[in-house]
Amino acid sequence: MATEAKQRRNRLYDWKRLFDGEERALKWGRDFMVPASNFRDHALRMAKDRDVALQADVRREANAPITQAKRVVELKAWPDRTFAEGPPESG
């Protein structure tokens, strides 16, 4: 049963597109419905399974009132780098 649930979750998102190297800002309620930190953690697990370097951050949506804690998950993948290598050093 757990395997079926995992497969269903994995089909919800186009990981190939999300890990194509473009920067993405995914919004709660539009792109995902789980807590933003859960989606970020799931994206990191999927990147590890696919051996793709990924940077994933959670932030509050710009101009959103504090009482509306809508969250954004920012993803940036490096498909030419392995998960173990991680994102390139900045600076």
Largest sheet: 3 strands, antiparallel
How far the N terminus sits from the C terminus, by CA atoms, comes to: 46 Å
Strand order of the largest sheet: 1-3-2
Q: Outline the low-pLDDT stretches.
A: none
Indicate the mean pLDDT.
86
Annotation, overall tally of beta strands: 3
> What overall geometry do the principal axes of the alpha carbons give?
globular
Order of helices and strands: HHEHEE
Give me the Rg, rounded: 14 Å
Compute the number of helices. Answer: 3
> Which structural class matches the secondary elements?
alpha+beta
Which strand-content bin applies to the residues? 15-25%
Helix content: 25-40%
